[in-house]
């Protein structure tokens, strides 16, 4: 392990959790994730280094199962980009989650996951361009459904576990829900923002990522009457920020198009200038380290959520990556 990694890990584990009083505000916390009517086309500025969902149906169609079919449901988890960086990110517990399905009538199986169109770096940090005042985000995320389960990929350094069975009819209902969820929930949100790490903390913002999709799907299945259970603890990655009550700032129009807001606009640009979106997961981690140093120094973070900016008065332990249990419904 390099000195930098060691330094980062030490910092993260060093900061002891300090508890704080919850601030009661007029706002609804956590701020609800905004749903849209439909998914807009991506901006041509956003160019994916790796194509999104290469083996999925181009129109996102999900095959229909016979109502009488019995479909096995699998919990799938693997360290992010392990093929490039060994299990380093596994040690950090930055995991990717998905769900598998196998039809007993046809013997075919399928993988379903939700992830970034332009990778994690682009969903976490915007592009600060010379000629445009507002930072530019390539932050769409979407569901991908494709035939096949790569057993080795999930099993070897992660998890492939059957957690239940559903009927073909339940599967078809789920498929319908997935399409709708995919059309209305279109932006990836990396951070979960809380008031402190304690059990009674207020959550200011929830993330919207691959594991949240998996949780939503399990809840939907439970709603349809499915019984799900796991023999092991079901843990998931969370990337936390800790702050006092967030302060609403505005959207692109009210911040970057208003001469009177120039100081704020400049501060946001300056903040994000240090963390340009990155090509690789390793660079993303290095950026998180930069973010960590900057946050400790300035106790300040500009969060972009629902296409609006918020100011977070940051407090210890500032930022944490955890791998914690979220039980099946
Ligand atoms: C992030 O977005 C930029 C701008 O479109 C693009 O050039 C880059 O390839 C994207 N990164 C990844 C990993 O897709
Ligand atoms: C979800 O939306 C993306 C982006 O439009 C699309 O590529 C994908 O096929 C859709 N997935 C499903 C399961 O509908
Ligand atoms: C599992 O991790 C090892 C070591 O980190 C790596 O060499 C191997 O390729 C990984 N397996 C898979 C299926 O990605
Ligand atoms: C999925 O199907 C492939 C090909 O038939 C098979 O090798 C694999 O074991 C199956 N995986 C699961 C989890 O059903
Ligand atoms: C959390 O709240 C519960 C119920 O109000 C209380 O019993 C418990 O002591 C609190 N825990 C902490 C760590 O503040
Ligand atoms: C899983 O989560 C539980 C509770 O959140 C925690 O105690 C446990 O250490 C976690 N397991 C791993 C492997 O991190």
From TrEMBL:
Signal peptide start and end residues: 1-25
Reaction equation(s) it catalyzes: 2 1-octadecanoyl-sn-glycero-3-phospho-(1'-sn-glycerol) = 1-octadecanoyl-sn-glycero-3-phospho-(3'-octadecanoyl-1'-sn-glycerol) + sn-glycero-3-phospho-(1'-sn-glycerol); 2 1-(9Z-octadecenoyl)-sn-glycero-3-phospho-(1'-sn-glycerol) = 1-(9Z-octadecenoyl)-sn-glycero-3-phospho-(3'-(9Z-octadecenoyl)-1'-sn-glycerol) + sn-glycero-3-phospho-(1'-sn-glycerol); S-hexadecanoyl-L-cysteinyl-[protein] + H2O = L-cysteinyl-[protein] + hexadecanoate + H(+); 2 1-hexadecanoyl-sn-glycero-3-phospho-(1'-sn-glycerol) = 1-hexadecanoyl-sn-glycero-3-phospho-(3'-hexadecanoyl-1'-sn-glycerol) + sn-glycero-3-phospho-(1'-sn-glycerol)
GO cellular component: lysosomal membrane
UniProt cross-references to InterPro entries, sorted A to Z: CLN5
Record's keyword terms, sorted: Glycoprotein, Signal
Superkingdom to which the source organism belongs: Eukaryota
GO BP annotations listed: lysosome organization
One Pfam family this sequence matches: CLN5
GO molecular function, one term: palmitoyl-(protein) hydrolase activity
Functional summary from the UniProt entry: Exhibits palmitoyl protein thioesterase (S-depalmitoylation) activity in vitro and most likely plays a role in protein S-depalmitoylation. Catalyzes the synthesis of bis(monoacylglycero)phosphate (BMP) via transacylation of 2 molecules of lysophosphatidylglycerol (LPG). BMP also known as lysobisphosphatidic acid plays a key role in the formation of intraluminal vesicles and in maintaining intracellular cholesterol homeostasis. Can use only LPG as the exclusive lysophospholipid acyl donor for base exchange and displays BMP synthase activity towards various LPGs (LPG 14:0, LPG 16:0, LPG 18:0, LPG 18:1) with a higher preference for longer chain lengths.
Family (UniProt): Belongs to the CLN5 family.
Name of this protein: Bis(monoacylglycero)phosphate synthase CLN5
